[in-house]
Design goal:
By secondary structure, the chain is mainly beta. It has two helices and twelve strands; from the N terminus they run βαβββαββββββββ. The chain binds FE2/S2 (inorganic) cluster. The site of FE2/S2 (inorganic) cluster has 12 residues, from loops.
Length: 202
């Protein structure tokens, strides 16, 4: 379900109405994607399996912005430093099949100062750009909030905060698992998948 915790984030009346956090937070950059709920989209995930568009991100896939009808591969310049969250899909570079047939493939791209990254996040980043699954491991809402000055990706459904500087580890909230990172590399200035998710999404 998408009910919020009492006293912090009021629950949405229905899953289809989204799961947006209503409490204003300074320096929060929001996306207008809404907090879609896993339960509402689960049938599409199941039906999409077996289709190239539904394969998980593959090594050497490029990334394209959600809603980009031109399917232009994203470059470093498309992910502004320390500013905006970019929603993306992986795309097979040869066939140009956008892997949007499975909701598990939806990504969130953020860019941080590479000097702030340590451990696995440093090696998973490409030019400071990090990719994470959009799917919150708590109950399957989309992660839609980015707090760049704290390096936090947040799910508004039940207020789980994930540390983008530390491989998506949980800082606060009910999620029991990190937000899965997707390692990236660069080909010139084009963002490319270095390898598929190291941890399962669901
Ligand atoms: Fe509950 Fe994300 S679905 S915190």
């Amino acid at each position: 379900t998408c009910g919020g915790r009492a006293g912090r984030h009021p629950p949405s009346p229905t899953p289809s109405s989204g799961c947006s956090r209503t409490t204003p937070r300074r320096s929060i950059l929001r996306m207008s994607l809404g907090g879609l709920c896993w339960a509402a989209l689960f049938p599409a995930v199941v039906l999409g399996q077996g289709d190239p568009a539904s394969l998980p991100p593959q090594e050497d896939d490029v990334l394209v912005k959600l809603g980009d009808s031109a399917s232009k591969p994203l470059t470093l310049g498309d992910v502004p430093g320390n500013a905006e969250l970019v929603a993306a899909w992986p795309m097979a570079p040869a066939s140009k099949v956008v892997r949007s047939g499975n909701r598990l493939n939806e990504l969130r791209l953020v860019r941080l100062d590479p000097t702030l990254l340590g451990g696995a996040s440093a090696s998973d980043a490409a030019g400071g750009v990090l990719a994470y699954s959009a799917l919150c491991p708590h109950a399957g809402c989309n992660v839609t909030t980015w707090i760049p000055d704290k390096g936090i990706l947040s799910c508004d459904c039940h207020a789980t905060d994930f540390d983008a500087r530390a491989s998506g580890s949980v800082i606060a909230g009910p999620a029991a698992r990190p937000l899965p990172p997707l390692p990236l590399k660069l080909s010139g200035d084009v963002l490319v998948v270095a390898k598929s998710f190291a941890t399962s999404i669901r």
